[in-house]
């Protein structure tokens, strides 16, 4: 009797499901309850898939730890292996799909076929017998890992269970503590925390016909397989009625393949680094503006993004960061999380910018984000692309007083060709809002630990930080073709560094600087500059800004300190003449990253440059330590201390 009930009730409900609307499901629910009352087992072969999207930037980032998560058809239920598993990724997210094997609507349980493998450098752990228990607000995903049956993941979010299917869209996926412990042990990881992992989607149906295999598709950050209708995830927040026919302009197009992320060498982990951005101020003005009565739209920060006010929104995320001796070369990959929804119902569109990854990597700096559009009621899905190019020219991060956070402020951004394609809003090259991004790390790296190991970790009082240098004069003149800055820093410090008291330290140079031993000066080669000739025939009023490169390191382990002075800029401008330079120091346990300041004033009284062919040389300019310079040395020398004189040569083209 029970057997008959199963054979009659379930297929009928399933077949008729495709013709039903959600509104008529009350009937199905009653019928299912009746089946439950008669004690019918309702597990039936099913189809569909369970997709786990792992995010590199998530709290518990398996991807960042290098753990490869893959689907394998070998273990687990047979019969499910005929369905293809969709895989894909772009480094920021990775998707793993498991085929649905059985669905039990009465207990809201889904069993998948196959197994999930977790692999790291030759170590491997496999979870089999994967089962989903769908709850009202959360789904537990359990499996057998080793010998133990564990709840491996939880996916928060309300699932829809109806007469023939179970669905969960974008459930917030996390790794359980038990699974984190088990994986840590099995894979030999020093650390793996539980917590947010990404998202989970469940799309399980009871089979009444042979399943149509889903085409394999590489994910581009949220695209659904083409056989599924695309559902606008923001329809509730910003409904756009179908069929409006406005002047739409350029239709969005597919971007090219995502460029590979840079491979960072020995990066530091960034946790919860903020990226503050507003996309484009004129677009915000347009969306929220009133072109016609009642046409004002809105901008919402969702899914973790927050509103800073003033047109700036914060996307925080985890990432990786490398500090470099020349601050301008620091690198960052920050996976920001969150959504900006630009809703302009009156013009029948919304634009969504989601999960921006900010990459700071010299000339390849960029913002990668998923962009989705609803135009006239049709949602086109998300496309992930490098939407903005960031111009780091002449920019460097500044560091917090504790040295742990690097911040790039107001980095200029431009729409890329891919950005123009996926947004369909503006042409490539259009200026966007500048972005400000920070990389907080746990401890301050000592960049010279390899060549100048300072043993002590005893604390040392930190002085005030010097103020940022004044703006350089903007000169209109001749761009330099060469030149250099020759400077011995401070003779007492140099002598002390080299003296056998009790053991000699060393003078080291990096990134193009050299040490001229007979003349006891460091030479920093010119990298750019401008020269302006003053009154004809009187070189005394000539002006110069010469930026040089290279680093001089005065290393004295025996006295537990080192000073690295890099990238000097010499300004020759009458009474405002000065030396601007980076200082990165370590004194005992105090490590202070590169801080740039107006270190010394240059006294031009009585200094007349010598002209030799195309080279103009100002020799032995007296240099006096400023208050900022004293702080740059962490108070080692008082303001007013006479430093070594500076010689600067500028070669004209
Ligand atoms: C009913 C349909 C629409 C109407 C009547 C309309 C009207 C307008 C008007 C009057 C402006 C100039 C606004 C200003 O300078 O303040 C404008 C600008 C703009 N519109 Fe629309 N629009 C429509 C649909 C769309 C759609 C579908 C999109 C793209 C999804 C779009 C994207 C833009 C953009 C990017 C600008 C330039 C904003 C800026 O200054 O940066 N518009 N539109």
Write up what this structure looks like.
With 653 residues, the protein is mostly beta strands. It has 3 domains: 22-206, no CATH class; 236-254 and 264-440, no CATH class; 478-651. β32 and β33 (578-587) form a beta hairpin. α1 packs antiparallel against α2 (25-37). The longest helix is centred in the first third of the chain and has 16 residues, at 2-17. The protein is globular, with a radius of gyration of 32 Å. Mean pLDDT is 85; it is low at 1-41, 75-90 and 209-229. Protoporphyrin IX containing FE is lined by residues 246-249, 282-283, 286, 289, 291, 347-349, 375, 425.
What would you say about this model in short?
The chain has 653 residues and is mainly β. It folds into three domains: 22-206, no CATH class; 236-254 and 264-440, no CATH class; 478-651.
